[in-house]
Amino acid sequence: MTANGSQQSWVLRQVRPLGGDAVDVLLADGVVAAWRPPGSTSPDSEGLPPGTTILDAAGLIMLPGLVDLHTHLREPGREDAETVESGTRAAALGGYTTVFAMANTNPVADTAGVVEQVWRLGLDAGHCDVRPVGAVTVGLAGERLAELGAMATSAAEVRVFSDDGHCVSDALLMRRALEYVKAFGGVIAQHAEEPRLTAGAQMNEGVMAARLGLPGWPAVAEEAIIARDALLAGHVGSRLHVCHVSTAGSVELIRWAKAKGWQVTAEVTPHHLLLTDDLISSFDPVYKVNPPLRTAADVAALRAGLADGTIDCVATDHAPHALEDKETEWAAARPGMLGLQTALSVVMETMVIPGHLDWAGVADRMALAPARIGGLPRPAAEGWSSIAVGAPATVTLLDPSPWRVVEADTLASRSRNTPYAGRSLPGAIRATFLRGRPTVLDGKVV
Amino acid sequence: MASAAASDPASRRPGIARTVLSADDITRIVSRMAHQILEKTSGGASVVLLGVPTRGVPLAHRLAQRVHAVEGVDLPVGSLDPTMYRDDLRLRGVRPLEVTEIPDGGVDGRVVILVDDVLYSGRTVRAALDALAAYGRPRTVQLAVLVDRGHRELPIRADYVGKNMPTSRRESVAVRLREIDGADGVLIVSPEAGLTGAAADPGELP
Amino acid sequence: MKGHLLSTEDLSRDDALVVLDTAERMARVAEASVRKLPTLRGRTVVNLFFEDSTRTRTSFEVAAKRLSADVINFSARGSSVSKGESLKDTAQTLEAMGADAVVCRHPASGAPHRLATWVRGSVVNAGDGTHEHPTQALLDAFTMRRRLGRVDGLAVTIVGDVLHSRVARSNVWLLTTLGASVTVVAPPTLLPLGVSSWPVEVSYDLDAVLPKSDVVMMLRVQRERMSAAFFPTEREYSRRYGLDVDRAATLPEHALVMHPGPMVRGMEIASAVADSARSTVVEQVANGVSVRMAVLYLLLGGSGEVS
């Protein structure tokens, strides 16, 4: 595919693919065209297409373009909080080249019409690929299946279906959905939350909730649904994906389901890898999220689960909210946090620096695994595994050295609800390429 | 929350202290003031002594003891905390409240003698007069102070003065009483050379 | 920065004692023939109540007026303020009015904490959701000290819907800070799961605890808890956890019966017990004014700098 008719070529001089040895990488015709000896390339080197730009990438780590299985772009409906344009801009700046846009928009993405609208808005914006997620049930109401097949065969080619924000809590409906999407290789991404156990819930149930007098969101409300759905998926032989796993018990259940050989995959958010519920003592709703921030023991279990592959991938659950939905008392605030522009930094801090994952592992958990789960069309998903010659030139370049203080006002999102404001995080995305075309250069959107 | 803590400015300020009244001086002065009170109130008729906390209270008790020793009469003694009537509350952190204890029989129609250790700007006495009004209407209000150091900011004067003590505003006067401080004495604390100005305290001792 | 009173959990023992000592002085003022003090003349106290509570609001109003503060009652209940967004708008309005202190009652836990980040004045938490009600706990401690001479070393039993009680939380922190040993008694459904981390004993058996209690504090139990399956029936609750005459008779002779009000007579407490000599229900109201005067004085009576 050729972007904007003209395809420029790039040499990433002395870049380190997956954090390995430096090499000069030529991106041409939308693919990784050649690997050349490190530092050997200059503007007058032989074998370069005319007009090739040489980028000094010394010290930068090249990763496959990141894939986010769980993004809320808010369009249509809440364009004051985020648009496809602003959300994908944030995604590109965070190193993402594909985002899966959740279905809880207004109107809900439960028809071919809405998912195609979102998909087209993504194409128009051009910052990254937008893959709409379709709703499982009409209006996310949990009562009737939406026209899943129509969404699958639409131009948007929907493969991931989710009522995220709501749990498909009816066991029979969940069974039918799991079975039905087998016909077109779909997957149900479940927001695991038993609604009767979380009525009015405001934060993780435990020591902090008891202190703060906030109604508790018990771990068992997540775990009970995961256990049930894993059993259902095993029973009908379908694929289940568990959204934003947040508890140690959930990790255990997913480990058990995988050991059974069932097709169960799971994601964890960056914030559940880093933040804990004691932050809520300030009552600042920037820390309000669903599922809620848990304890340090949960954080440790999630990191271990991501490291050993029990949890397949990191997904941001990027959830922009307008100021008036966050600058309020806790109970009135909407749950959700920004994530796209900070995800890789948080994974670096929580997984890479402590030694739980190397950069190849990061590439797997943040690009390859989510691409596989989300059913991204081949061959795109295949070649990425090595960033080898012939693979699509869909990559991101990370400078691992700086620590930067997050400033909410400088983020690309229309919203400001980052829980990391004022916090120092490692790493900075310098450039992102989508099929050979730069979407970010010098840390700025192209 | 702001916490109120009593402190003695003279003890935390760097400076040079010199003793200007000894324990014996204070005993003699209190004795003389007791005589003056008896003289001026016709033997202490309907007198109520109200000490202004902190150090006005033991002084009031001492005056009552001397009066008893001389004349055999028992004057009612109480305390009156003017803090909540001060006009300078906003000038510093919250002041702790002290005890107000009006003797049985009250103050209506009585000769109330307010007793304080140091008379300076007069603002404490003004506040005490307001505080007193909340408890009744005395026939007469008089003022007894151990030390008058001058620098009045209000038209207030004492009826009984133990010792007139001209001071600079830069100096502070510290009264020590054994009931509170373990020993009697009056000190003048001058700011140390080089620290002048920094140590100046526009207010009174509490 | 200005001081606030948002919770008792972060109140040190020294600060709590200063409040109680100051309240004692304030109580003496009530004995003067003129009960009004000029102390907070020119200061503005806003009563910002998002929940109906005539008794608490009135108590703060009387306290502020005795100290000569200007009082503005800002009742947001029932207006368009049912959604939370306008808490910040309200805060900005209060700023414009020049409120020196905002006394805030709100149905959402933590609302006063938020407010404190948006206004320059001092914020006093007058009850937030199911979180805390610090002045209630201070007046309870004050009442215990006046009646029993101390709080340190007292055995205090708190009975009832601890899960949803801001009074219970504030009392647990304050009373244990002041050296009392606290036991909470409730059906397990009405205790928070995290209660094991609290510095209290937990019991499900009221009869076993009463004979060892110096103070028993009965919490209100709302009838709507029944429908949410916290307990089966009113009658069963009352039988197991209500303070009736027979149970009250097992208390030591000196023991106090307290209730933050409003009481559900016949449910958690029998009328005869509520009106008995060991009941402090009425003096708790008077003590509330003294304690709230103390709090307002300590927050507003100086330059605002913590000394």
From TrEMBL, chain C:
Residues noted as binding L-aspartate in the record, renumbered to the chain: 83, 166, 220
A single cellular component GO annotation: cytosol
Name of the protein this chain belongs to: Aspartate carbamoyltransferase
Family: Belongs to the aspartate/ornithine carbamoyltransferase superfamily. ATCase family.
Reaction catalyzed: carbamoyl phosphate + L-aspartate = N-carbamoyl-L-aspartate + phosphate + H(+)
Subunit structure: Heterododecamer (2C3:3R2) of six catalytic PyrB chains organized as two trimers (C3), and six regulatory PyrI chains organized as three dimers (R2).
Segments forming domain Aspartate/ornithine carbamoyltransferase Asp/Orn-binding: 152-299
Organism per entry: Candidatus Frankia alpina
Record domain Aspartate/ornithine carbamoyltransferase carbamoyl-P binding: where: 4-145
Sorted UniProt keywords: Pyrimidine biosynthesis, Transferase
